[in-house]
Amino acid sequence: MKHYNYIFTGAGLSALMTVYKMALSGKFKDKTILLIDEDIKKTNDRTWCFWKENDSVWEKSISKKWNSALFANAEFSRDLDLQPYQYNMVQGLDFYNQVFEGILNEPNIHFINQKVIDINEIPNHVYVATETDSYTCDTLFNSIYRKSELESQTKYPVLQQHFIGWFIKSKEAVFNPEQATFMDFSVEQKGNTRFMYVLPISETEALLEYTLFSHQLLEKSEYEREIQKYIEKLGISNYEIIEKEQGSIPMSCYPFWKKNTKRVLNVGTAGGWTKASTGYTFKNSDKKSTQLVAFLQTEHDLTKFQKKNKFWFYDLLLLDILDRHNDLGASLFSSMFKGGDSNLIFKFLDEETSLSEDIQVILKCPKTPFISALIRSVRYL
């Protein structure tokens, strides 16, 4: 049975970011590292987006950048000048290629294409079993999401950010390749929080995603019917579908990190690294992975890594509202973006604002639902 210093069960976004940064740091060359995943990461299976001010370590994976974004609902639309931010698109295969090109030349880092079936922590190490082999390690990072754990509890609200996206090529030149559509709530809400998300690559090519923040997933045909209607509304009559993608991201402030131990740390969605109020994953995971790599150089007790902050509480209030009144999403987001400082909003969503800046953003929101959520919040503390 082979022993490693570090094992990553699941090679998702957060695990791969962490391993890549461990390799870049040069501080872990004397440590053996194993990644285990049943997926070989050779397909373009997803798209991530994030906003940033400066170049990042992921420049090689970024396929498109926008300096402007559109926010819209049934009553108004607003062009958002994102500067000093840029909105960036990363396609899955580009990210996987960058990471694996960076880590597999490192003699101490190994990737095994197997399915994990058991993790067992014992006093001196952690045991990991796959369908064919078993391993041990000093420290384990788990990114295998335990859906049943979240859905079996009733204390914390649980919604899903669920979507289907079509990457299309149109005969008509209708897209503005210099502007992404961040949220378009002009689509029929049907008692939920529903919007279109558009990432134009050129005047004739774009990724269009029909997205919901709600409790229940839809039949595949409903997502695709709404995408078709939106395409027609844009004036497109002749197009081909190049690729499709779909996903469902849990949105909850459930404290996954309470399951962390001295030797086992849950990362990514399994560790609560997804931004609970928006479902954004890339930027949060980028920050958390950087913090984790620095943490590992000075600390060994993984229970000390994760801590709640004020943004966890803000997210909790929003999720509490959408859990009870899922139809309020369009009005809540519209109230922020209609008259608010867009740069400040993005800074707030990045969890980088001061308390006085937080108040500026929060005061743009409808007061009554947030006051009610604040009163109810005692049950979560």
State the gist of this model:
The chain has helices at about 15-25, 90-105, 145-150, 220-235, 280-295, 310-325, 330-340, 340-350, 355-360, 365-375; strands at about 1-10, 35, 45-50, 60-65, 70, 75-80, 85-90, 110-115, 115-120, 125-130, 135-140, 160-170, 180-185, 195-200, 205-215, 240-250, 265. With about 375 residues, it is an alpha/beta fold. Strands 1, 2, 8, 9, 10, 11 and 17 form a 7-stranded mixed β-sheet that branches. Strands 6-5-13-14-15-12-16 form a 7-stranded mixed β-sheet, sandwiched between helices. Strands 3-7-4 form a 3-stranded antiparallel β-sheet.
Written description of the protein model:
This protein has 381 residues and is an alpha/beta fold. The protein folds into three domains: 2-51 and 91-153 and 252-304, FAD/NAD(P)-binding domain (3-Layer(bba) Sandwich), CATH 3.50.50.60; 159-251, D-Amino Acid Oxidase, subunit A, domain 2 (D-Amino Acid Oxidase, Chain A, domain 2, 2-Layer Sandwich); 310-380. The protein has ten helices and 17 strands. The protein has helices at residues 13-25, 92-103, 147-151, 220-233, 282-296, 310-324, 329-339, 342-349, 355-362, 367-376; strands at 2-9, 33-37, 47-52, 62-66, 68-72, 77-81, 86-91, 109-113, 116-122, 125-130, 134-142, 159-170, 179-184, 193-200, 205-214, 239-251, 264-266. The strands form three sheets. Strands 1, 2, 8, 9, 10, 11 and 17 form a seven-stranded mixed sheet that branches. The protein is globular, with a radius of gyration of 21 Å. The model has no long low-confidence stretch (mean pLDDT 93).
